[in-house]
Design a protein that fits this description.
The structure holds two protein chains of two kinds. Chain A is of the alpha/beta class. Chain A is built from 16 helices and 26 strands. In chain A, helix 1 packs antiparallel against helix 2. The longest helix of chain A has 18 residues. Chain B is mostly beta strands. The termini of chain B are far apart. Classes of the chains: A alpha/beta, B mainly beta.
């Protein structure tokens, strides 16, 4: 039970199908296995204990993923946008790695005394290698397949160890083998150091769906690629969908698209409602998961999206803001501050358990309790039918006086305004209250949020929530500090709002 | 046998291999083509047996075979010609209920 088994099944089951890249220039499942076998031999011969990938997504990524797996060492995709200090720290954790890095990313590698090859050179080298004998490899299911560093938006990045058993369990629990149609194509827009890039490479291969990568996202490029490559399935983070929906004068026709999955951060209700109306032929899927859970643990499916838009039942409508229900093999519990489970409808801390859940942070020990439960550090609640509502990171909670305030609740109100494209609510250090609530909004393109409009926004929050949850100040910025994968960097918001203390 | 989840079992009568996706608490015989399957990495790997001509329904790559009462589920990772059976009873094909693609 390791990820090489998934590749073997694909190569045996539909070996001649193109599974990576464009139909004209991509490679088949059988070719992917040959390249992975050559990559595995390269890693083994080098004596490396890990394969570091410091490059944009592309055809070399799945080859590296399966090559590392065949060699029995983890693939470590690293965020190429990190600053030198963080990069040096992460690279320093892997002194015996074989390295694949883009031109221009080699400085940190050289500082660590390692040498790198570019993805192009890596693939060219493998293409010249005669395919090794087609022998099945035995890799311990409990050995690490991938180490992914968390984004570090709330704390220092941690290396999440995902074992073969975690990833395979996720794939087998959520995908049927060879279930994609011959012409299906998936468009991947997230970078390789995001868990979705790893899970996407595995699930699409297992389903028999060709994967095309969009190296640098912009709304026009995205719709043109969907049209040009006849893309049927796509995955985006909410900021990407917001940019596609809000881009002026963009031809948003995507006739080939059948399914659009999104996740990774909270989706503004205005954006998803507009997207559902813009593309009535598309199946929308909201997935919630963490790096530590091998990607998706809950799914809100296409029918539930449409029902929420059309239903007169408030509970059904509300589900458009939910993350859906647990996938097979996953248990979810919402617990109070003392660790006791709470009934549905009550907010608390989200805990999760299942085979796909990582049990270890590299160098830091176990990440689960004695019963195998993992604490997501997310707040949330379930409704009577088990739909999970995410209320934000525990670490983002604002403590004003003695009151705990979840920013997400206030952000939801701000984002409902038709002229607000993006919003964040943070706690700013305050002598009287400990923290006071402040908000930053971004105006939708073409809209103007002047002082009067911002004051009206404050009044709207006071009307929807209550005085103690109303931001003392709302300011308008051209954009919010977000990671390329759409996560808000709240500490940067706070330091800009309160520069004196920082 | 009482294999742990994730174990690969190999047929001794044809090319079938399966992995154990679920296994209850019972100690059960798993056969393919009428002869016991063996742990693909165990000491019995490579054993061959004569297939039972009456048990030749075939196995299909990527399909799940399951008995909910026994709590057993096997996923076929290499197809073959024999019939999968647990405790002498053919294991039925499990209905696929695919989730929508989420990544």
């Amino acid at each position: 039970m390791n990820v090489t088994m998934l590749l073997d099944m694909a190569a045996d089951g539909f070996g001649e199908r193109v599974v990576v890249g464009t139909r004209e220039e991509g490679f088949t499942a059988a070719r992917l296995r040959e390249l992975a076998a050559a990559a595995g031999a390269l890693v083994t011969d080098s004596g490396a204990d890990s394969l570091l990938y410091l490059a944009v997504n592309g055809p070399a990524f799945p080859v590296a993923l399966f090559g590392a797996a065949r060699a029995g060492v983890p693939l470590v995709p690293v965020n190429y946008r990190l600053g030198a200090e963080q990069l040096d720290h992460l690279v320093g954790n892997h002194p015996d790695a074989l390295v694949i890095a883009d031109e221009g990313q080699t400085a940190a590698i050289e500082r660590a005394g390692l040498t790198a090859r570019t993805p192009e050179k890596f693939l060219a080298e493998l293409a010249e290698t005669p395919p090794p004998a087609d022998e099945p490899v035995f890799v311990d299911p409990d050995s690490p397949a991938v180490i992914i560093y968390t984004s570090g938006t709330t704390s220092a990045p941690k290396g999440v160890v995902l074992r073969h058993a975690n990833l395979v369990s996720y794939v087998l629990g959520t995908v049927e083998f060879a279930s994609a149609d011959e012409g299906d194509a998936a468009l991947m827009s997230v970078p390789p150091y995001h868990i979705a890039a790893v899970s996407n490479a595995l699930t699409n291969l297992y389903a028999g769906r060709r994967v095309i990568v969009l190296e640098a996202f912009d709304p026009r490029n995205w719709v043109e690629t969907v049209r040009g490559q006849q893309v049927t399935n796509a995955m985006v983070v909410p900021t990407m969908l917001a940019r596609i929906i809000d881009e002026p004068d963009l031809d948003r026709a995507v006739p080939s698209l059948r399914s659009l999955a999104y996740g990774g951060a909270a989706m503004p209700r205005r954006i998803i409602e507009q997207a559902l109306r813009e593309w009535p032929h598309v199946d929308f899927v909201n997935a919630y998961g963490l790096t530590e859970t091998s990607s998706t643990i809950t799914v809100l499916g296409p029918a539930e999206h449409r029902a929420a838009l059309e239903s007169a039942d408030p509970a059904v409508q509300a589900r458009l803001s939910s993350a859906g229900r647990a996938v097979p093999g996953i248990e979810i519990e919402v617990r109070d501050d003392d660790g006791a489970p709470v009934p549905s409808g009550t907010s608390g801390h989200i805990w999760v358990r299942g085979e796909q859940v990582s049990t270890e942070y590299a160098g830091k020990g176990s990440s689960v309790d004695a019963e195998g439960w993992f604490y997501t550090r997310d707040h949330g609640r379930t409704d009577a039918d088990g739909y999970l509502f995410i209320e934000g990171r525990v670490d983002d909670t604002i403590i004003r006086g003695a009151e705990n305030i979840a920013p997400a609740e206030i952000e939801d109100v701000l984002l409902r305004h038709p002229d607000v494209a993006d919003a964040v609510v943070v706690g700013v250090p305050d002598d009287e209250w400990g923290q006071r609530i402040e908000a930053v909004v971004v105006a939708r393109q073409g809209a103007d949020l002047d002082e009067a409009a911002l004051e009206a926004l404050r009044a709207e929050v006071r009307g929807s929530l209550r005085g103690s949850k109303t931001p003392e100040r709302i300011v308008c910025w051209p954009e919010l500090p977000r990671t390329p994968t759409g996560k808000l960097v709240r500490r940067d918001v706070v330091s800009r709002l309160d520069p004196v203390r920082d | 046998m009482k294999p742990r989840v994730g174990t690969t079992l190999a047929s001794t009568t044809d090319g079938t291999t399966v992995i154990v996706v679920r296994w209850g608490d019972s100690d059960l015989d798993v056969t393919c083509g009428g002869a016991p399957m063996v742990d693909a990495r165990g000491p019995e790997a490579g054993t061959t047996n004569e297939p039972d001509p009456a048990q030749q329904e075939g196995t299909r790559m990527g399909k799940r075979y399951a008995d909910d009462a026994l709590g057993v589920e096997l996923l076929c990772t290499k197809a073959g010609t024999g019939t999968l059976a647990v405790g002498g009873v053919p294991l039925p094909l499990k209905d696929a209920k695919p989730l929508p693609a989420s990544d």
